[in-house]
Write a structure and sequence with these properties.
- Helices cover about 25% and strands about 35% of the residues.
- It is α+β, with helices and mostly antiparallel strands and about 190 residues long.
- Strands 3-1-9-5-7 form a five-stranded mixed sheet, with no helix packed on it. It has a four-stranded antiparallel sheet with strand order 2-4-8-6, with no helix packed on it.
- The radius of gyration is 23 Å and the shape is flat.
- About 20% of the residues are buried.
Length: about 190
């Protein structure tokens, strides 16, 4: 093999190694990003279940909490909050719910992903019970109210007077749970 051929072979090996590393990094990005956001509260991501024990409510202060429901564009469900906003006292536990309905004729499993804005409020939004903690399995046509118990931590900065809790419902990654809406099947898509 000539010097040029040997040089080309090394270059090809390095390029293949770089492509393989980038491909692996692409798969690792989502879990790494979620861990980073959970730890830092960046991008409004909030952690899991929190118990509101021994917290005294601040009855002299109110915060407006807005609720938003979104669906991934491939999710053929109905999804909406029970109320669009609540005025709450930091440190006091409140209950609301979101309604979801599977509009297909197949069993579907979905997962709700929460986001809080402004980002500085994310670490102060505490959920004690939430449908977002687990995947939700729905029978064909099934609809139900899903509870949310939450509180705003009294340590929320004073300048934050409005907090938005937004959920986006995604399909489960399990291929056996993939379904299409009746109108999608009729159109052949």
């Amino acid at each position: 093999m000539t010097a040029a051929g040997s040089s080309n072979a090394r270059l090809v090996k390095r390029l293949l190694l770089a492509v393989t590393a980038m491909f692996g990094f692409g798969f690792a990005m989502v879990p790494l990003y979620n861990v980073f956001c959970d730890l830092t509260g960046l991008n409004g991501k909030v952690g899991g279940r929190v118990e509101a024990v021994g917290v005294e409510a601040d009855l002299n202060r109110t915060v407006m909490v807005e609720f938003v429901a979104n669906l991934n564009q491939t999710m053929p469900w109905e999804f909406r909050p029970e109320v669009s906003r609540m005025e709450v006292h930091p440190g006091k536990v409140y209950r609301t719910s979101f309604y979801a309905q599977n509009r297909t004729d197949r069993i579907m499993v979905g997962q709700a992903i929460p986001s809080v804005t402004p980002g500085t409020a994310a670490q102060h939004f505490k959920k004690t019970e939430c449908f977002c903690f687990t995947e939700q399995k729905f029978e064909p046509g099934e609809g139900r109210d899903m509870p949310l118990l939450f509180m705003i931590d009294p340590d929320l900065p004073e300048d934050v007077v409005r907090v938005t809790l937004s959920y986006t419902f995604y399909r489960s990654d399990d291929p056996s749970d993939v379904a299409t809406a009746p109108e999608d099947r009729a159109s052949g898509s």
